[in-house]
Structures are given as C-alpha cells and as structure tokens.
Design brief:
The chain contains 5 helices and no strands. It has helices spanning 3-11, 13-21, 24-31, 36-46, 51-72. The longest helix has 22 residues, at 51-72. The termini are far apart.
C-alpha cells in the first residue's frame, strides 16, 4: 500500500478501524489506490457521517423535543 494511504489511516482512527473491520479493502487499495474515495464513502456510510445522516439525526432530535414539549402541556 502506498505510504500516503498508510499515513491517512494512521491520522484518522475511524478510517483505520473501518479498514480492520473490512479487510477486503486492503487488497482493493493495494491494487488501486484511487479507490480510496470509495473506501472513505463506505466508512462515512458505516459511521453515519454523511450530510444526509446528520440532517436525519437533527430532525429526529427536533421531533423528540417537540413530542416532549407536547407531553408537558
């Protein structure tokens, strides 16, 4: 694996953890380092770090607060 990719894994613990849990990516990244973007998207999907996931979480929190406030009436 290229040194640049190894450094990215060491700098970001979530990327490294995702690589350990999905070891098939090691072979893919060794053969095609340009697949790192796909790997990173896979990690974001797993850890729910995409923008849509954050919006959904915020809406869920707003709904929870609204429900709580309605129950307090």
């Amino acid at each position: 694996m290229e040194l640049e990719l190894q450094k990215k894994f060491l700098d970001n613990p979530k990327l490294y953890e995702h690589l350990k849990q999905n070891s098939g990516w090691i072979k893919i990244l060794n053969r095609n380092p340009n697949a790192f973007k796909d790997f990173e998207e896979s990690m974001k999907e797993m850890y729910k770090e995409r923008a849509t996931d954050k919006v959904d979480e915020m809406l869920d929190n707003i709904d929870l607060i609204t429900t709580f406030l309605n129950a307090m009436k």
